[in-house]
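In the laboratory, one determines a bound structure by crystallizing the protein with its ligand and collecting diffraction data. In a computational setting the workflow is compressed into a single prediction: the sequence and the ligand go in, and a structural description comes out. We illustrate the idea with 4'-deoxy-4'-aminopyridoxal-5'-phosphate.
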Amino acid sequence: MPPEVRKILDMNAFDPSKDGAEAQASSGLLARRRANFGAASVLFYRRPIEMVRAEGCWMEAADGTRYLDFYNNVPSVGHSHPRVVEAVHRQMARLNTNTRYLNAVTEAYVERFKALLPPALSNVVLSCTGSEANDLALRVAMEATGGDGIVVTETAYHGNGYLTTQVSPSSWREGGPPSRVRTVPAPSVEAYGEDVGGGFAAAVAEAFASLAAAGHGPAALLVDSVFSSDGVFADPPGFLAPAVAAARAAGAVFVADEVQPGFGRTGAGMWGFARHGVEPDMVTTGKPMANGFPMAATATRPELLERFCRRFGYFNTFGGAPVAAAAGSAVLDVIEEEGLIANAARVGARLKAGLEAAGAGDPRVGAVRGAGLFLGLDLVRGGEPDAAFAVRVIDGLRDRGVLIGACGKYGHTLKIRPPLPLSAAEADRFVAAFAEVLAEGR
Ligand code: PMP
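The predicted complex, in structure-token form:
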């Protein structure tokens, strides 16, 4: 029997129908939460945690427990970073307004941001969430190509809007893709053999051909360049290039979703796509861009945006407002001044080596993959995905004061993604906790 396919929001989430949770649900905050959020409530852990503050790589719960945060790609320069807090506070006290007035803070940010991107991507549309950034990128792609066929990976997540949910298989609890979307397995050796790049490109080409046969002309290949929700696939660098060439040969544009790998996480420069030596037609960013202040961007070539704007106006009330720009600028300052990209490479390599050593000879620990401070670690049983064990490991780590999540089609991959200032000692602490959980579960 093939392993059960898991949905990302359901992984190790609080489920009122299980684990005696009904009793908990009747108490305090949890009951209020359920009453307020209803069926759309998603909470980590079967015993949800009430958080009250956070600093650096640490979060603190209402009961005083301190947790090492290995899950969070939003406060990526560290929780409550004083530089960002100060920048937001200062700008908020001075001016915050939409981008229909001229404002030097916003232009200064965009110029810094553009300087980090390929020069051809010289127009930037600022918004507030990765979902908005991807929605716009797909709409621009459709206008530019005249097609509406989109190819994404099998367990991708690209957002929560109408169109972005259509390209986010990891959100679908029922049914398959709409007719304009094709999914391809993420670029893994399991799916494609040793020639991951060639196999992935062939799958992309076939997907566009099948879309065309169904009357959906090619519009976009949209991928998260570190394949986060698919299970973290980063190597070998360069494997993305043939797929990008295949998409372009079919007539589609390539959109690099940098919401996860962007802003230094892979330890190999600012962007995940750059590790693959490809130049996207569009780049989207979000989450870590302003360290928790809502900020996102779609960067593209002027002619693509012009074509879109012939048919539609685009305005985003909060996108690119001066406070967001001030937060974004502070994030870039911190990344540079604290050498966070080099830190991600250095501490990430130490963490990977430590996890490999902890799992060596243990048949329950499969591959450890990733780049910089974004790692995926497979938990297996008889070589097959073991999501139940992943949940036990996640709970065991929580009991040892470490927060972590899972990803991948079968939910058996630990998603290891701490803030970028992680110290060597904090990395070692995680490895020690992981080793203890393994020993306990023997
Ligand atoms: N793209 C990717 C790769 C993501 O991981 C996410 C969020 N998890 C999004 C887009 C959507 O971002 P947001 O939640 O800010 O809309």
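The chain has two domains: 8-77+339-440, 82-337. Keep in mind that any predicted model is a hypothesis to be tested, not a measurement.
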